[in-house]
Amino acid sequence: MEFSVRLKELRVDNDMSQTELAEKLNLKASAISKYEKGITQPSIDTLKNLAEIFSVTVDYLIGMSDIKNPYSNSQITPNEADLIEHFRQLTYENKIRIDERIKTMADA
After folding, report:
1. Half-sphere exposure (CA, 13 Å, Cβ side) for 73?
2. 52 contacts 78 by C-beta, under 8 angstroms
3. pTM score, two decimals?
């Protein structure tokens, strides 16, 4: 599914007007309209903000995944989800180092 379709679907499902969404993003309603019509594409920063507003991943927004939020069954914040994604990209050795540091900090 295209970004434009997903954006409109998420906005409507959240009972939000184009104007309301635009205000949350500090954009004009016409920008949201253009996104939903597929005329223009949002910046990376706008995509990140949209993902946070709708509690979905950027991958879901751009059609790379059909899973809205892999962490939706838990109470993980968007920041925690970002940390998990960064952690997954680390080497095994760095994962061990981070794990040790977190445990040390948690015990302090």
Report:
1. 2
2. yes
3. 0.65
Nearest-angstrom CA–CA distance, 85 and 70: 11
Greater pLDDT, 74 or 82: 82
Q: Integer distance in angstroms from the first to the last C-alpha of the chain?
A: 47
Distance CA 31, CA 5 (A): 15
Give 43-80 pLDDT, tens digit per residue: 999 999 999 999 899 999 999 888 887 766 556 777 88
85, containing H or E segment: helix 78-88
Q: For the beta carbon of residue 6, count every other beta carbon within 10 angstroms.
A: 19
3 closest CA partner among 43, 44, 38, 46: 38
